[in-house]
Amino acid sequence: MASSEEPYDEEEDPAVAELSEAVAPSSMRGIRACKRCGILKTIDQFIKDGCENCPFLDLMENPERCNACTTAFFEGQAAVMDPRVSWAAKWIRCDNYLPGVYAISVTGQFDREIEEDLENRGIRWRCRPAPSK
User: Fold this and answer.
1) pTM
2) What CATH code is carried by the domain that includes residue 72?
3) Mind spelling out the 3-state secondary structure of the chain?
4) pLDDT at residue 8, as a whole number
5) Number of domains comprising the chain
6) Domain enclosing residue 113, as ranges
7) Which of 14, 23, 118, 132 could form an SS bridge with 100, CB 3.0 to 4.6 Å?
8) Which part of the chain is the Spt4/RpoE2 zinc finger domain (predicted)?
């Protein structure tokens, strides 16, 4: 029995195209979190590709900036495939970002210069200072 519907074309589906942009750490060793959005990648991935959610941080091909804008101090991980409909993405506040693996919480601080730049642009970030001892 022939169907009157056209065959499904993955390339024309915007949701599938966005999912193809999903980022996952290429290794379980040396994972770092972006201090702004919390996406998890290796330092090499941040240096090679930057942060897909935060291109204004200018991480690509800039190891010093990658070290300043990412941290190894994070708790938990959540793989988010469709951030727009995921309750977990809403809970960890990454529902406006690309699909990927995100930290549940991020500890660290941006350098004052970077914080001031983000504040001037009206951009919020997720990292929290480490608790005082």
Assistant:
1) 0.80
2) 3.30.40.210
3) CCCCCCCCCHHHCHHHHHHCCCECCCCCCCEEEECCCCEEEEHHHHHHHCCCCCHHHCCCCCHHHHHHHEECCEEEEEEECCCCCCHHHHHCCCCCCCCEEEEEEEECCCCHHHHHHHHHHCCCCCCECCCCC
4) 43
5) 1
6) 23-121
7) 23
8) 31-107
